[in-house]
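Task card 7
Instruction: Convert sequence to C-alpha cells.
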Amino acid sequence: MLGEYRIEGRRAADIAASVEAGIAAGGLLPGTLLPPMRELAGELGVNPNTVAAAYRALRERGVIETDGRRGSRVRSRPSSTPRDALRTPVPAGVRDVAKGNPDVELLPALDAALAGAARRHAQDPTLYGQDPVAPELARLARAGLDADGVPPGPVAVTSGALDAIERVLVAHLRPGDAVAVEDPGWGGALDLVPALGLRLLPVAVDEDGPRTEAVAAALEAGARALVVTSRAQNPTGAAVDEGRARDLRALLARHPGTLVIDDDHGHGIVDLPLHPLGGATRHWALVRSTAKAYGPDLRLAVLTGDEVTLDRVRGRQRLGPGWVSRLLQYTVVELWSSGAVDPAVVARAYGERRDGLVEALRARGVPAYGRSGLNVWVPVADETAAVTRLLTAGWAVAPGSLFRVESGPGIRLTVSRLRTADVPGLADAVAGAVRTGPAGGRYE
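Output:
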C-alpha cells in the first residue's frame, strides 16, 4: 500500500505533516492508497479519531481525496497546482489558440471608466462600515438579472466567478460532500472542488448543457450541489437551452435540498438567452463575471441567490476581505452605464470566428462543437499525438486533459484572436493532426 514509506506522528498535525513530507519526497506517489484509519491508528498507537482528524485536514488542503469505502488516496497533483500550470510553453513563431483569453481588441478602454470611478470616490470616499455593495451597482445588476428571468434575490460582489463559487459551496457544504460538475468543464471548478475537500462527481455534457440523465445519476449518487455553466461553457461552448433547463428544473424540484450554482461568465459576450436553474431548489446562486467582457484584470463578479445563501456568503466575506474595492465597483458602473461594450457586436465577432471554424472542421470530416463563447471542442483519439502534430504544424492548442475527468479525449481551440483568413489553415492543420472522435453532440 505504502511501499517502504512509513507515516509517523502522535498528533493529527504531525500525522498530516508526515503524509505531506512523504509526498514531497516522492515516497508517496500520486494515487497511493493510504491505510484505513483504524489500521494506521493501531500502528501509531493513537486514537482513530486522531488519524481521522489528520485525514480530514489533508482532504481540506486538497492533498488527498476520499472515495467512500474505497478509502483515501494521494491526489494526482496538489491542489496548489492548477491545471493551467501544466500547459506546455508555446515556442516562438507558433500561433497560440490554447489560452482562453478574450480578444483584447474587443475589450473597452478603461481610462474613462477608471477616471469616472475616481470622481465618484472623490465625491463620496468609501469608509469602514458602509454597505459592501455600491448601491448603483446593485441596482444595475439586479435590473439586468430581472430582465434575464433570474429569480429575485439580494446582490453580493466577489473577486471573480471562482471566488463566488467557492464562497457559495463553503456556505453550505462540508468536506466529504459530493458536488456534480460538468465533464468536460472549466478546470478552475474541477480543481476547486477537491481543494475544498469535496468529492467531485463528473456530469456528461452535450451542446445543450449538462445531460439530464447524467445529472440524475449524480443526484442519486449523493451530490449535494450542482455547478452549471449557463452559456459559453468552457471548453465545449455548450449553452443550456430552454428544453434542457425545463428538464433540469423538473429533476431538481424532486431534490429540493440540492444547492444549484449557475455560472453565467458569458454574460456580455453571447447572444443566446439565459435559462437559469435558480429557484428550482431551496438554495441557489447565480454568478456573473466581468472578465470576458471587460478584461480578466477587472476582478469582479456579481452574485445573487436565495436569502440564506447570500447572507452566509456576505457574513463570511465580512470576516475576510470585507468587500471588493468600490473603485472596481464604480468602474463597472461606469462601463455598464456608458454602454462601453455592445454585447451584440462582441457576440457576433466571436460567433463568426467560432462558427466559421466549426463549419470548416466539419467540412473536413472532423466533428467539432462550439455553440457559444470563445472555444471550440474537438474530440480526438489521442490527445498527445494531436497536440504534438499541431505544434509541429505551427499551432498551439489546449489538451483536453486540462478540462476533463472521465469524458473522452479532446482538444480545445480558443477563437478569440482568429481572423477569417486564419480559419482554413487552422482547419487543415487540425484535420491533418487528429483521428476523428465520436459524433452526435456528445463529448464521451
